Each structure stands twice: as structure tokens, then as C-alpha cells.
Amino acid sequence: MNTLHNILFSVYPYICLSVFLMGSLARFDRDQYTWKSDSSQLLRAGQLRWGSNLFHAGILFLFFGHAVGLLTPHWVYEPFISPAHKQMLAVVAGGVAGAVCFVGLTLLLHRRIFDPRIRLTSHRTDLFILVILWVQLVLGLITLPFSLGHSDGSVMLVLSDWAQRIVTLRPDASGLLNLAWPYKVHLVLGMTIFLLFPFSRLVHVWSGFATVAYLLRPYQVVRSRRVGLPTRQER
């Protein structure tokens, strides 16, 4: 079990990150025509509008919340907020964002499965990735009561230390041994989503980040080209 634990939390993260980065680059280089979200808005827009807006609002908050919460060193926020208060903030904010995201994702999944027209035009990977995201979201919501049981912030510190060690190439999964099972399954499935990212419609997320870079681009200078009017002799 210790060997499996070390493989899942010390080796598997680097496999997932490598496939995530290299696979995304390879797909952009070789299959740019598949680099899209495959929207089905033309088939049915009402439920999509609510589901998509709720899902994207919730998932973006959760993504950046996880990134900031896990990767910010303890000494950076220690003068302003204690680990216990930070964990409570994460539980409350993450719970609200998770509930919003859950409603939106459930609407999208219901639409894909029970609308005959949309189901016929959906790829298997579309349904597969939605189901994985839905299960991952449910697991995240399940961890909230466990986090409330550790109100001292100890669980948050353990998870942050593991994530920061992965990023700084100093893997150490020993701190995760005593965590409850929802945390471990949530971590493994989250890493698996990064592994599947380049092979699914999720690659369009890169385009969303590229849009921000597009807004910050310098102005394009366009000069008018003067064309001389014909003289009376040329007429």
C-alpha cells in the first residue's frame, strides 16, 4: 500500500503534468481543427445558457481558489490570516462555488443525456469528461464535512505542503497517508483530469487564457493610404 501511495502521489502527478503540457502542445500543432468546444447551442439554447453560465462561473472560482490556496506558501498569508480561518474561508467560499457549479454541470449533463438531438451529435468523450467532472465535483463537496471536522487548518497545511513540493520537484507524499479517503480520491481524479485534458474538448480552456492575452496586446497602428486624384488631363 505504501508503494501504491507513493506512486499515486509522488510519481503520477508528474506523468499527468507531462501529458497535460506536451499533449496540449502536440494537439495544437497537429490537430488545430479539433481545438474547439463543440458547442451545441444551435440545437437547444435555453438550458445551455443557464447550465454553461453557472458551470463556468463556479469552475473558474474553484480552479483559481484551489491554485491560490494550495500553492501559496504559509509564510505569505500567516501575518494576515491563520490557517484555521483560511480553511474556514475555503470551506464556505468553496461550498458556495461548488453548489453553483454542481447545478450548472448537472444541467449540462442532463441536457447531453436526455435530449435526443444533442445526444446523437455528442461524442463519447463529451459525455465521459462531463461525468468525470461531475464525480470530481461531488467528491469535492463530500470533503467539506471532513474539513469542518479539522477546524484547526491542519488538513489544509498538509495538502498545501504536498502540492508545493510537487511544483518545486521535491515530492513527499508521507503527509497524505492519514488523510480521509475522499481527499485522496479527489486528488487522484483531479490529476487524471489533467491527464485526459489534451484528448478532450477541455483544450478550449487554453483559448480562454489566450483571450486575456489578446486584450492586453498593443494597439495595431494602421495608416491610411492616400491615393492621388486624377488630374484634368488624365481624365
UniProtKB/TrEMBL annotation:
The keyword Glycoprotein does not apply. One of its GO terms (molecular function) is heme binding. Gene3D superfamilies: Transmembrane di-heme cytochromes, Chain C. One of its GO terms (biological process) is anaerobic electron transport chain. Its main location: membrane. Heme b 2 binds at residue 66. Its EC number is 1.7.5.1. It is a multi-pass membrane protein. Heme b 1 binds at residues 56, 186, 204. It is found in: Cell membrane. The chain crosses the membrane at residues 6-26, 54-76, 88-108, 128-148, 187-216. Keywords: Cell membrane, Electron transport, Heme, Iron, Membrane, Metal-binding, Nitrate assimilation, Oxidoreductase, Transmembrane, Transmembrane helix, Transport. It is an enzyme of class 1 (oxidoreductase). The keyword Membrane applies. Residues 6-225 form the NarG-like domain. GO terms for cellular component: nitrate reductase complex; plasma membrane. It catalyses: nitrate + a quinol = a quinone + nitrite + H2O. PANTHER family: NITRATE REDUCTASE PRIVATE CHAPERONE, REDOX ENZYME MATURATION PROTEIN REMP FAMILY, RESPIRATORY NITRATE REDUCTASE 1 GAMMA CHAIN. Dimer of heterotrimers each composed of an alpha, a beta and a gamma chain. Alpha and beta are catalytic chains; gamma chains are involved in binding the enzyme complex to the cytoplasmic membrane. This is nitrate reductase (quinone). It comes from Hydrogenophaga borbori. The lineage of its organism: Bacteria, Pseudomonadati, Pseudomonadota, Betaproteobacteria, Burkholderiales.
